[in-house]
Design goal:
Blueprint: E1 3-6, H1 16-23, H2 29-37, E2 41-43, E3 59-62, E4 82-86, E5 90-95, H3 113-124, E6 133-134, E7 143-149, H4 152-163, E8 168-176, E9 187-190, E10 193-195, E11 203-205, E12 213-222, E13 225-232, H5 239-246, E14 289-297, E15 303-307, H6 312-324
Parallel strand pairs: 7-14
Antiparallel strand pairs: 1-3, 2-3, 4-5, 5-7, 6-7, 8-13, 8-14, 9-12, 10-11, 12-13, 14-15
Helix pairs in contact: 1-2
Length: 329
């Protein structure tokens, strides 16, 4: 039996797949997009693209077959996450390393940040109709600040800010090499990016690609390494990682654009001696990239700034570099 839903003013402007995700928090966005593409969800009786922006007064005709739906993000085991800020409209959380932002296609049982956020919200207020939705993502092995919307109005506001450059983001990136920028000096990396052929999600510099800009400056120096502060102007896939690598300063740990999968004391300590019978444990085994700070205007017009502290593995690396590789001119 078909279900009919009329779009009101508060819901206008949101993309069809995002609206459906809010209506059906227990169903994956991928499943809902396939239902739209298959014609099981119509707008005013006509097929539509999942990315179509809805208008006030339009009617959705829903013929969902939930028996074919894959497991919900909430079906996977939730991961404990720290809440950095919460209001009636939004939730800002601290993403840990090794946790995918959305359920992974080939391993949905491993859990995700989206699922953990929904689980957290359901536990706190099970009577609520809507569940928080991520309005942006971080790579699986990147840590730090992620913003979630609690309702349609907030999601529309936040997505508009992200789409039109109304959000200021700052990352800390530990890179190979001693960056030549003077203290306090800032550089704009302006290199267009596009997909790298058939190499999965890998990106590359492409003069025919999308405009991509990242502002960078030196945060802290070590002998042979630099902690950079990166402020993306645009939000392309792997933007910071590609921009840093292309300018000669790849992340210290980045198996896709750099040369390491992990960073150990023996990689930078002269005459390092391994303890007999004990394998060396890496200081950090994931991307040396952390989303430290985000700032944007709330619906009420107030400026909100939220920061995420550096996680223990990142701090451990910086401590050892300061001890073994202190910088001197």
């Amino acid at each position: 039996m078909s279900e009919y839903v009329t779009i009101d003013f508060e819901q206008s402007g949101i993309e069809l797949d995002e609206y459906l995700s809010l209506m059906f928090p227990g169903l994956s966005k991928g499943f809902l997009r396939r239902e739209v593409s298959s014609g099981n969800i119509l707008v005013d009786g006509e097929p539509a693209l999942p990315s179509r922006r809805l208008k006030e007064g339009e009617t959705l005709i829903l013929n969902l077959d939930e028996t074919d739906a894959p497991a919900s993000p909430m079906d996977a085991k939730p991961v404990e996450i720290n809440v950095l800020f919460e209001s009636d409209e939004l939730l800002v959380v601290d993403k840990p390393a090794g946790l995918a932002s959305e359920p992974e296609r080939w391993a949905p049982e491993k859990g995700s940040l989206a699922g953990s956020v929904q689980w957290l919200a359901a536990k706190a207020a099970p009577e609520k109709v809507y569940r928080p939705r991520l309005v942006h993502r971080l790579d699986k092995d990147t840590t730090g600040v992620v913003v979630c919307a609690k309702d349609i109005e907030s999601e529309r506001h936040l997505r508009g800010l992200f789409e039109h450059g109304g959000v200021q983001k700052e990352y800390l990136a530990l890179v190979e090499g001693e960056h030549p920028l003077d203290d306090g000096e800032e550089e704009l990396i302006d290199l267009k990016l596009g997909p790298d052929g058939k190499r999965g999600s890998r990106q590359r510099v492409d003069h025919k690609g999308k405009e991509s800009q990242t502002r960078v400056r030196v945060e802290r120096r070590f002998r042979g390494y630099t902690l950079m502060r990166c402020m993306p102007v645009t939000g392309r896939t792997h933007q910071i990682r590609v921009h840093l690598a292309e300018t000669g300063f790849p992340l210290v740990v980045d198996p896709l654009y750099g040369r390491r999968e992990a960073f150990s004391l023996s990689d930078f300590k002269p005459n390092y001696k391994r303890k007999p019978g004990r394998p060396e444990r890496a200081l950090i085994g994931r991307l040396t990239l952390h989303a430290e700070r985000i700032q944007f205007p709330t619906i009420q017009g107030e400026t909100l700034t939220v920061e995420s502290p550096l996680p223990a593995d990142f701090l451990r690396v910086l401590k050892q570099l300061a001890k073994v590789r202190p910088y001197s001119r």
